[in-house]
Design goal:
Blueprint (H helix, E strand, L loop, with lengths): L25 H12 L3 H22 L6 H22 L2 H15 L8 H9 L2 H28 L5 H33 L3 H8 L9 H24 L1 H19 L3 H29 L15 E7 L6 E8 L3 E9 L4 E10 L2 E8 L6 E8 L5 E8 L2
Antiparallel strand pairs: 1-2, 2-5, 3-4, 3-6, 6-7
Helix pairs in contact: 1-2, 2-3, 6-9, 6-10, 7-8, 7-9, 9-11
């Protein structure tokens, strides 16, 4: 069986901005305005006083459980308008013009909630899953084989101790990924069951971070140690990366029905706020690639789709849900992290449709496992499972 991957390199970040204005700290807002508007020290001091005076009021408003979501949103909009008015009173004429341009770019031309709602609405309309599938297929076919070749060139330069650390981080990232998937599935179930309060609250929980502080520091250390070795490898495929970026922009544009200006606006915001972090993330994901993994870019696509596991991580039992696209024999296997077959869970004819199966894990120690589902053509689809005690 081919070695199952963690996550392939995200060579090109999709055009979404996670750090929205309202969620920045006052210090970051002031730093941003100082850079963009060329503020004087006196103006910076005035802005600091404005944000300091409003900080507790904003904190109280965000934590108000008595207001409905719509009431809180309206109150937040009024509150931000008040702050913006006070900021404008500090600025000179040229700075005020630039500030208005910043606000217009942030909110776009789609009403008070900005162009981000264009993305959100498309995702609510079911386009998000379609976009994810198309980009994943593109990466598997075009990006992954090339980056695996580049990663293999780096392997001889990595120390044995760091190779072990990278292997441990791969498992850690899978655990965090599984936790996030479980968290968002629970959040979705809360919303669908009518418990929207818990669903919205779950969206803002901090427990779904991609990695804890200790893991982050380990990853950061690896990137710093091998950055000078990675940069030339990236440079070798610079032309290809530019093509990948443009192709993914086109896929995003066509799938979500966006115009070129919306795409470029998203790219400008991303570059302005996240370019350094994106580059470090790209190097970290590159390090986590397994150079011994075989690319399956030219293999036929599996007829098994939409595989999910819940709970995941699991202590004793997990339920696998999957979608069979065509009638035929389906075999489900549980394998350990090295690919060794532990047991055959199911092997029978499936009609086209959605299925679920329960897998008992209590007899195994805490570790990473793979659920491998083979379709009638013998093509495998895989889901990672984390067993915890």
């Amino acid at each position: 069986m081919k070695k199952v991957i963690i996550s392939s390199l995200v060579a090109i970040m999709i055009l979404f901005v996670q750090q929205i204005w309202a969620q920045r700290s006052p210090e970051r807002k002031i730093d941003h305005l100082k850079t963009e508007l060329n503020l004087s020290d006196d103006q910076v001091e005035q802005l600091e006083q404005i944000f300091e005076s409003k900080h507790e009021e904003m904190k109280s408003l965000r934590g108000d459980e008595e207001k409905t979501r719509e009431e809180k949103r309206a109150a937040m909009e009024d509150f931000r308008a008040t702050i913006n008015k006070e900021i404008e009173n500090v600025l000179n004429e040229d700075q005020l013009t630039k500030f208005q341009e910043i606000k217009k770019e942030r909110h776009g031309e789609h009403g008070r909630r900005g162009h981000r709602m264009g993305f959100h609405k498309k995702f609510k309309d079911g386009k998000g899953r379609e976009l994810h599938a198309q980009i994943k297929a593109y990466k598997d076919e075009n990006i992954k084989p090339v980056m695996l070749e580049q990663r293999a060139k780096l392997e001889p330069k990595i120390s044995e101790s760091d190779k072990q650390l990278i292997a441990e981080l791969r498992v850690e990232f899978e655990k965090n990924k599984a936790k996030r998937e479980a968290h968002f599935k629970e959040m979705k179930q809360n919303c669908e069951s009518g418990n929207k309060k818990e669903g919205i609250r779950g969206r803002h929980m901090h427990g779904d971070k991609r990695m804890d502080d200790e893991t982050h520091e380990k990853m950061k250390g690896l990137v710093e140690r091998y950055q000078k070795d990675i940069e030339p490898l990236f440079e070798e495929v610079a032309d290809q990366q530019e093509k990948w970026k443009n192709d993914i922009k086109e896929i995003t544009k066509n799938t979500l029905g966006l115009d070129s200006e919306e795409i470029e606006r998203g790219m400008r915001r991303m570059k302005r706020h996240h370019v350094d972090r994106m580059e470090k993330m790209k190097m970290g994901r590159f390090l986590l690639l397994d150079p011994n993994e075989e690319s399956n870019a030219n293999e036929p696509q599996s007829l098994i789709r939409e595989i999910s596991a819940f709970p995941n991580p699991a202590s004793s039992v997990t339920t696998i849900e999957y979608d069979v696209l065509e009638k035929g024999q389906v075999m489900i296997e549980l394998r350990d992290r090295k690919g060794k077959l532990l047991k055959t869970v199911k092997n029978e004819i499936h009609e086209k449709g959605k299925y679920s199966v329960t897998i008992l894990l209590e007899s195994y120690k805490s570790d990473l496992f793979y659920v491998v589902i083979k379709d009638k053509n013998g093509v495998s689809a895989t889901k990672n499972i984390v067993r915890v005690r």
